[in-house]
Protein: Isoprenyl transferase
Organism: Corallibacter vietnamensis
Amino acid sequence: MVKNHAFALFNVDLKKQIHTNALPKHIAIIMDGNGRWAKQKGMLRAFGHENGTKAVRQVVEGCAELGVENLTLYAFSTENWNRPKIEVQTLMKLLVSSLKKEISTLQKNNIKLATIGNSEALPEKVYKELQDVIEKTKDNNRMCLTLALSYGSREEILNTVKKISLKVKNNIISPEKIDESVINKHLYTQNLPDVDLLIRTSGEQRISNFLLWQIAYAELYFTNVLWPDFTKHHLYEAIIDYQKRERRFGKTSEQIN
Ligand code: FPP
């Protein structure tokens, strides 16, 4: 109890160090380490994923409370389909149960749910549940929570090239008119700003086919914390670190100061 109280005070202290006028507009997270977390405890990987949902709650709540406008979570990659069938099923079940459980919290907190990725590849039950929550929360405007599901960045870019090529073929757009904004409009993330801060947990320092176009100027933050242990405290640490960095977007320090 005393320990919890001290921790809460420590969190308040850390939160106060965040400049709310310079928050990242878009935070993206590669939630990694569920399997290792479970293994350390002598448990099955599913136990890690279950506890990973608690960390999801922490970051959604933490971002919304601070005023971060967009949070994107890498929940299931195109490559994750290659995992053992039982693990894929567990993840899909967890997704459905989390959506059912959290819909009221999303509504209460004015949070909109969106997805990026090939959602049609998802089992029908998951797809339907997602569409239901997306529809019910579509007018919420405090924060947009985007789940990357069956998502792969190269696939997204490939689809974008195909969509634009078709428009060129049908004389809807001329090749000279293709610029960055045209590409942005054809990506899954068409309604989102570029990523400002990309966090990856579990000590791995890779991007793993996540938002390759959108992280062009993102600040990268890697932490050894395994995803199920990630709390608001760690989120605050990442944002404080981000706010200490000088974002130059290719310019010199003198030009931006
Ligand atoms: C990576 O850990 C995590 C995943 C592939 C899935 C993330 C899913 C959740 C946190 C739960 C459900 C999500 C929502 C949005 C309700 P890993 O299995 O690769 O861990 P390892 O690298 O230690 O094996």
User: Anything to note?
Assistant: The CA atoms of residues 26 and 70 lie 5 Å apart. The pocket of farnesyl diphosphate is lined by residues 31-36, 49, 52-53, 56, 73, 75, 80, 91, 94-95, 98, 147, 202, 227 (CB under 6 Å). The chain has a mean pLDDT of 95.
